Amino acid sequence: MNAPPLSGPRACCGRRLARAAWALLLTLGPGLAVRAAEPAAPAVDGDGIFALGWLDQTQAFSSTRANALAQQLDRFFGVERSDLEAAYSSLRLTVEGRWEEANAVEPRLRLRGRLHLPRIDERFSLIFSEDQGEGTSYYTQNPAFVEQQSTRVNLEVNLGEEGKDRWDFRVGLRSSGKLRTSMRYRYEDSLDASLFHRLSETVYFIDGIGYGSFTQYQLDRSLSPSALLRWSTEFRAQENLDGNEWASSLSYLFRNSDSSGLSTFVGINGNTRDSFVGRYQVGLRLRRNVARPWLFWEFLPGYQWEKVSPLTRREGGVFATLRLEMAIGVF
Known about the structure:
Blueprint: H1 8-37, H2 65-77, H3 80-84, E1 90-100, E2 106-116, E3 124-129, E4 152-162, E5 165-173, E6 179-192, E7 195-206, E8 210-224, E9 227-238, E10 245-254, E11 260-271, E12 279-289, E13 295-306, E14 315-328
């Protein structure tokens, strides 16, 4: 269901957030970029977008062609999981505006990433995220999981990581002051040199909402040194939901140069209580590095067909998202 247009105090708040984000980008960006570029340690791989040698910091078993390419593309496109599981600290500040047919532009300010705390313990990190479990796919637009301008800070403890398995525990406070805790398990492995799969399961408790779980399975196949085909499926069960949410997508990711890339996707999602698919969606995602190594713009146009109940007709509509992102790596 389309959200109502922003007006009055909410629209004013959105404009203030956008202006504040622009000011932060202009004032902090150069300083953070210089700090990120300081040679605290020799970079093994200096050809990446941050010259971080990020590929060599990942686990040894991830050397298959499909997984290495998936990590490179996820890193470039800013997929949430790629930052939250990384061996490096990183932050992404994003200003975005989303427009849907018959609705006003909806501004949004987001901060996410990971800060390692080596002086306390190498297993401890501060996580800035929107608490969407694994980070739901960008084609999923369910307002039950996406609260506007709501970045949360969590303390994460890596309970164990060996080869293909990883366990994490996370605890934090939501913007309302209520407690949220979660336990996450991830398994990933290569099926052959060009085929890689990943399964993750997150069980969580949110004060005032109850228990829930989020499951995601991904299958990646490398098509060339710069192109990847990905099938992803997701399932969420939560106490306060009427039925269980599910989604599935097929996407093609391609990086045509060091500074630009694109992806195309088709996706469906719905609820197990319904006898119909809630939404069909197709779209294109264009992303490019501009002006500075840490600055990116992104344009995502698409079209969706949505049905909200058995008694209503399926309605189609155009949507588009424009983003400006400041991405800072190891520092």
